[in-house]
Amino acid sequence: MRRTPLCDFCRFRQPGIPMKCNAFPEGVPAPFRFGADGHVDPVQGDHGIQFEVAPDLPEPSRRLALRLVAAYREKHHQQTGAND
Description:
Blueprint: E1 13-14, E2 20-21, H1 30-33, H2 59-82
Antiparallel strand pairs: 1-2
């Protein structure tokens, strides 16, 4: 199953290959790049920049991006709750 990376909807993504953004100018880490995780919380090395919806997204894409953000936050909440 193909996962949609949240990066596809981010205002900070830069054009080109390899995938780069303002948070990761040397290249987006694989878990974010391939959709296994979403960069919705701060991580080491992200220069204080996390996902933000691109302002020019059409409404259907904006809704999808917000659903993905909610799913990643729920996943992180479940993981941190399991570690308590």
